[in-house]
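Open question from group meeting: does this chain pack into something compact, or does most of it stay loose? Before anyone orders reagents, we agreed to write out a predicted structure and look at it together. Recording both the input and the output here so the notebook holds the full record.
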Amino acid sequence: AFYIQADEVVPEWHHETIAAACKKYEKDEKVEGLLFDYLHFYGNYKYVADHRRWYKYEVRIIRSNRNISSYKDAQGFRVGNRKILVQPINACIFHYGWVKTPKQMMKKLNISSQFWVENAANQTNQQFNEAFDFTDYQSITLYNGKHHEVMRERISAHHLDLELDVAKKNMSFIDYILY
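Structure tokens returned:
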């Protein structure tokens, strides 16, 4: 089963790799899921969050097994309390959940706070503000790669003139050590 959320996209140049991995591990019962790399776009389509608190990998394909269930907001999958056994593959998910206007982002965070105890609005201390402050980040980097075809029209219509400083790092001492 391929689990994907509405704000995630699989680049078409990874489709063959994914299909090959599914075929390769189809009969291997020790592999319960496939682990993808993640890119979290932040603010617009040219910045990627690269702080350690943004998950770098996530399971998005799982074996068809009634004992496997999603964990929290699909932050992994479990069989009971045990994480499933996964195989990393050379494919990436593009996550666009943080690409919105400041007002849209704040609205999303305020609505999501109704459903999750530990939610993004509370974590950023911006809940109930009118607009999200995209300059309040730990670490970002420029994305110099291409985007997939399904996003071309949306990206060309996106007019969020957001300029962020990739040199700015807002991290604790331990963050710097682990960065």
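Observations to bring back to the group:
Strands lie at 8-9, 33-42, 47-49, 57-62, 68-70, 77-79, 82-83, 86-98, 140-142.
The longest strand covers residues 86-98.
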